[in-house]
Amino acid sequence: MRWPGHHSFSRDGSKAAVRGGSIPAAGRPPNVCGAAALLLLVGAALAGAAPKVTAGRLKGRIRLDGVLDEPAWREAGVIEDLTQQEPHPGEPTPFHTKVMILVDDANLYIGFLCHDPDPRRIAVHTLQRDARLWGDDTVGLVLDTFGEQRRGYFFRINAAGAREDGLISSHGRPSTDWDGVWNAKTRRNQDGWTAEIRIPAQTLHFTPGRDTWGFNVERRVAREHLTLRWSGISLDATSWDLRRAGLLEGVGRLHQGLGLSVSPYALSRTGTDFSPGARSWGGDFGGDITYNLSPDLTGVLTVNTDFAETEVDSRQINLTRFPLFFPEKRAFFLEGSELFSFGSGLYREFIPFFSRRIGLYEGRQVPLNAGVKVLGQSGRWGVAVLDTSLRQTALTRATNLFAGRATYDVDRHLTVGMIATNGDPDGVHQNTLLGMDALWRTSTFRGDKNLILGTWVAGTGGDVPAGRRTGWGVDIDYPNDLWDTHVTYMEFGNGLHPALGFLPRPGTRWLRLGNAYQPRPEGGPFGWVRQFYFETFFTYVGELNGPTQSWRFFTAPLNIETQSGEHIESNIVPQFEHLDEPFEIAEGVIIPPGDYHFLRFRSEAQTSDHRPWRVGSTVWYGGFYDGSLVQWFNYCYWTGPGGHLQLQAELEYDTASLPAGDFIQRLWQARVVYAFTPDLVLSSYTQYDSVSRNLGMNNRLRWTIKPGNDFYIVWNHGWVNPLGDPDGLHLRPVDDRLVVKLRWTFRR
Fold this sequence. Notes:
Oligomer: single chain
Low-confidence stretches: 1-47
Largest sheet: 24 strands, antiparallel, barrel
Radius of gyration: 26 Å
CATH topology of the domain at 72-249: Immunoglobulin-like
Helix content: under 10%
Mean pLDDT: 88
Shape: globular
Number of helices: 2
CATH class of the domain at 72-249: Mainly Beta
Structural class: mainly beta
Number of strands: 44
CATH architecture of the domain at 72-249: Sandwich
Strand content: over 45%
């Protein structure tokens, strides 16, 4: 089950395979360039030898415009072509890609020459920073600046210059939460497109004088669902797997400078609450100071932290008896968040440290006086420390909240770590958490397969509920292209209460079993299919030493991705739920205690991400507790030429018929984005749900004057549709907020 831009886990929580793509098997054109060079690259990859390239020394200047016409590029280190990684590793393609690398004392430069036999079909859907680029033609690179094959950086741009970046950790998929200061420009031409990327040394952590980094580059051709790569061309390899990366030499003269960055902000705000008729206005200032305590560790001090530019949460309809998960979106907490990752196989069942507990309490903001972070890697040690001071509010007392995480690399496969938190967001109660975990990863199991083994244990103290205060778990994961299998067992004590974490179901034991058989047919009657996904996932949840609470058996007898990127899926999902007490699923609709067995079905169809029009529809139907429930999820996205204009509409429509009563719930979401350039973007996000009957609009203009210097205008407006109003279309204004904010960065 795959939704737009989500390629690791499906909306229903089952594990889904990473989507790839490439040219169909039939009719592939022959390569018209260096077959001998290609054979050497493929031979080296199969032999396990890491390819090498030496960065050229920059003489003169580079004007970042995407043209690659400066004489300095003639001295660059060159990767002559990339090799097809998916769907047919090592086979030739007409999409030739030349990569050039230059370095001076302060910057790393990477140039791409991307030949395309039909440049009119180059796909671009967005110009936004950190947007999902899966449906776009892109180039990207990863850097392992310490050469430890565990942690690093990734950078990606599309053919219009939209930038995406993030941090790679030992826990798997990279996090896009980190926003580095770097720049890139692209240019379309009659042969395809070109790109220039400049990454300042001050943006990276590395060992001074180290002349060799781990390095890999990748290109994606969206319309063919084709992936080209320099190193790691197995179908089981991912671009962020640093163990399969090549080597970049000649970077030993890069200097970070003083490692000091000062980012002050100033803002002006005005607001209106229409119910009491109160208006307010004023201004504020604060900022962040970042300093490299060592080449490996960064310290960050934030004062009077403000999150006015943060986009609002996407609303969700909750038809369960457990709290919903809303991801962190605030920049200060996002940067370095991957270093707090704990425990293999946990996902959202248990997050020991969940930063949304800081600065938010019962849906209201709690102002931060100041915060301190220390992040980074020193030798085999990884460190993440966060300490914040919060002000007193009508709901909370002034308090201090702490979270710390340390990891140690025992060898190239095994990492052990611990985590600790202290404090309660209400400022009244005491709460501590301690945990330990271990993670063993390899990409050479049975030759070239991925295997992950993990275990963890955690406990809480202070003002926590009575009962067992500990939890533990083990995880075995075999994530590969043909077979993707995992087994997870977890227990959460009924007294395990992480005040700074997320644990929706304490007092339970879990068993998760999953297997996906994912063949790729070659020609014949199924030549139109890129990959089948025959999936079975079983989840069991029971009380500790007690009865079963729920179980769910998710099957996918039909799950297909076509050669053109369309997706078709059908599922059969028997479920069981045990209720100890009544459950109000909707206003006035109460499901009584008891045991409930029901059978649900799902049908889904989605068009390919590379098309200008992208539409999809999913319907869940069948039994639900002692009645029935139909859930429709529909989306329609359109992108104008060049990716400047984006229109998105999503609708969820749920209708239930239960003995306790019937109900209908709706959620409408619409987004309009116009990007003048990748550095000047205007967006509007509107949401309405029938539960709160609230219509909210979030409008934001972001102008990146230059990387690190941003100007924002944010306007939020809310309306409510009064209950029982005879005119169903009547809307009454509730609140109005306008913020103008400028953030500037000074680096030395």
